[in-house]
Specification:
11 strands; about 625 residues; single chain; five-stranded mixed β-sheet; alpha+beta; two-stranded antiparallel sheet; Potassium Channel Kv1.1, Chain A
Length: about 625
């Protein structure tokens, strides 16, 4: 810490109770009362340095209450900046006693010198000049400026009138916005005993330390020691100088963690010898903490994403604990809603602080956050199709990373978490489930699970209410496991179970058709087996061990049918080469061909036939026989 030494005489002041006396040998002729302390001094050294004391002494009368020496002059300076401890330094300066100007007392001495009018006109090398010169030197150093700014709070509004506060803030803002190693100041003078030049001693030789690379948050801890009014002015100053919003937000979060116990562990910064300043948590009461929180929220940058959603949710939870203003909570809810896709479930589970509501979590708050999210999404996209990622245009972006899809998964997880709450009313649960549109979910397994848990925890829900709730679920978007569970779920309405069975049957028919399509093109398309293998690998994770065994049996049956179809094709080719007649082929398999009348010219090219298969052919092969016959008729 920088220091300037003034005076050359040894100390002649001593204390006697609430009074300070001078052991110069001469009786005191003036008494100056500052707060509860009396200074018994001499007129000449004081009046030769202070114009204000000279004017006060000229206008004052002897104090007859002083006893023997009734001619002693009494002056009361109760509004002196810095109080008794500052006036003691002023008195020592007037007597030429050695004093040290430091970053911790320069602001108080500068204000006291101005108050006492200790200008150069009263005497050369007066206190105003010395304190102003040293203050300019202090402003060149980061840590010294911090300490000087802290002491300005003791001499308000004098420091404001002398522009000491604004000069300190401008100096700090300039340094915080610039590259820290360029001005060669310590990153945190509270945890180090090095001089401003940060000299290092090696083998008895003092050398200047090399500039070290520091992160962008190097100034967070130092400015967190400032009280809220000065810290707020500093944040506004660095913002006006173009500092990145991310850095401003980081400093605000750091400050909030220090002064709000709900935000995290408070820092305990202390020098190794125990003599350094500690973190002064002025916001000890709930009212003070509420003021700090509301001011921090107002200072947060407006840009989206500069503050993690986790921290915003912590601020929101803290605002509920401290009963912050409604505007503060609405501000946080809008910020969270704008970037809700970055949230996780554990942060969204906000305990209910309203004792009049019996639910465990604050579902109304989550509802408002979701409404804000949908309002932002509505501004971004005009149609539902634009909400989803175009995989052809952006093949590298997975569908699951779409903000709307991510929020849908988050909401489904939240519904699952709150569904077991017996005090949760159906309208509120249904309202939360209906906030997001149906196209936001790739699968409805999550919302189905939430509905199932809710119906299990609320058996008194009527059939009509169950029907109304399940309308929010798309049975066609259930996975195989979810469809199997839903088909056997007695808590679901009958209509839903029928829909599940219908879509599962439709899905099965489509899958079987795809298998036969792959087999029919396998001989001509070498990638047929590869497609089948991909399909098999895609659906195997959805099956259990028993289902895998059944699938292997179906696969063997599939290849058997494939061999039979190839044999049939070979027989058809052989008959066509030898006899060249469809009648022989149809008689071989016991089929009847009914020819329909057609025009003479068209009869040579094409005819319509109705193939009636015998009952001995299995229904599974009917489609393949009809397909093969139609194919040969086309030829």
């Amino acid at each position: 810490m920088a220091c300037m030494k003034l005076g050359s005489k040894s100390d002649v002041f001593y204390r006697d109770g609430q009074s300070w006396l001078c052991s110069s040998g001469l009786p005191s002729d003036i008494v100056i009362q500052v707060e509860d302390t009396s200074f018994h001094l001499h007129k000449f050294p004081l009046l030769s340095r202070s114009r204000a004391l000279e004017n006060l002494t000229r206008d004052s009368s002897p104090d007859e209450n002083e006893g023997v020496d009734y001619k002693k002059c009494l002056l009361r300076l109760h509004d002196l900046p810095g109080g008794a401890k500052t006036f003691l330094l002023v008195a020592k300066f007037c007597y030429g006693v050695k004093i040290d100007l430091t970053a911790k007392n320069v602001a108080r001495l500068r204000c006291a010198a101005e108050y006492l009018e200790m200008y150069e006109e009263c005497g050369e090398g007066n206190l105003v000049k010395h304190s102003e010169t040293f203050l300019n030197a202090v402003l060149e150093n980061w840590i010294d400026t911090i300490k000087a700014l802290e002491t300005c709070e003791e001499v308000l509004p004098y420091a404001e009138e002398l522009h000491i506060i604004s000069r300190c803030i401008d100096s700090l803002a300039t340094k915080a916005c610039s590259d820290q190693p360029l001005f060669n100041s310590p990153v945190s003078g509270r945890n180090t005993g090095l001089s401003p030049e940060r000299t290092l001693v090696w083998n008895g030789i003092c050398t200047a330390s090399k500039p070290q690379h520091v992160s962008e948050d190097w100034w967070y801890e130092d400015v967190s020691f400032l009280r809220l009014p000065l810290y707020k002015r500093l944040i506004l100053a660095v913002g006006s100088r173009g500092m990145k919003p991310e850095r401003i937000a980081g400093s605000l979060i750091f400050y909030a963690k220090n002064y709000l116990p709900q935000m995290g562990t408070q820092l305990n910064s202390q020098n190794g010898n125990g003599a350094g300043p500690q973190l002064n948590l002025s916001a000890s009461s709930e009212a003070d903490q509420r003021i700090v929180l509301e001011e921090i929220v107002e200072l947060l940058p407006d840009q989206k994403g500069v503050i993690p959603t986790e921290m915003l949710l912590k601020l929101l939870r803290t605002s509920m604990i401290l009963h912050a203003s409604q505007s503060c909570r609405e501000n946080l809810e809008k910020r969270i809603g704008a970037q809700l896709d970055q949230a996780v479930l554990v942060d969204l589970l906000i305990p209910n602080m309203d004792h009049s509501v019996e639910t465990l979590y604050d579902n109304d708050c989550v509802q408002r956050i979701l409404d804000h999210f949908m309002a932002v999404e509505k501004d971004v996209t005009d149609t539902p199709f634009n909400c989803l990622v175009d995989q052809e245009q952006f093949p590298g972006i997975p569908q699951s990373r779409n903000p709307l899809t991510m929020v849908a998964n988050l909401v489904d997880s939240y519904l699952v978490e709150i569904a077991s709450d017996v005090n949760l009313k159906l309208p509120k649960f249904q309202s939360l489930a209906a906030v997001l549109p149906t196209y936001s979910r790739r699968l409805d397994d999550g919302i189905y699970r939430a509905f199932d848990i809710y119906l299990k925890a609320h058996p008194w829900v009527t059939d009509s209410e169950r029907e109304q709730l399940c309308r929010l679920m798309n049975c066609e978007k259930l996975s195989l496991n979810a469809s199997t569970h839903a088909a056997q779920n007695e808590r679901l309405p009958l209509r839903v179970i029928v829909q599940v069975l219908f879509f599962e049957q439709l899905r099965l028919r489509t899958s079987v058709s795809n298998w036969f399509f792959v087999s029919d093109n396998d001989s001509q398309n070498p990638t047929g087996n590869l497609a089948l293998a991909r399909y098999e690998n895609a659906i195997q994770p959805a099956f259990g061990e028993k289902q895998i065994v059944h699938f292997d049996e179906m696969r063997e049956r599939f290849f058997d049918l494939k061999k039979e179809c190839l044999c049939m094709k070979q027989e058809i080719d052989k008959i066509m080469k030898t006899k060249g007649s469809w009648n022989s082929f149809l008689k071989l398999f016991g089929l009847k061909l009914k020819m329909k009348s057609c025009q003479p010219k068209a009869a040579k090219k094409k005819c319509n036939a109705e193939v009636v298969p015998p009952t001995s052919i299995t229904p599974l092969l009917n489609g393949k026989q009809d397909e093969a016959a139609n194919c040969e008729l086309a030829h």
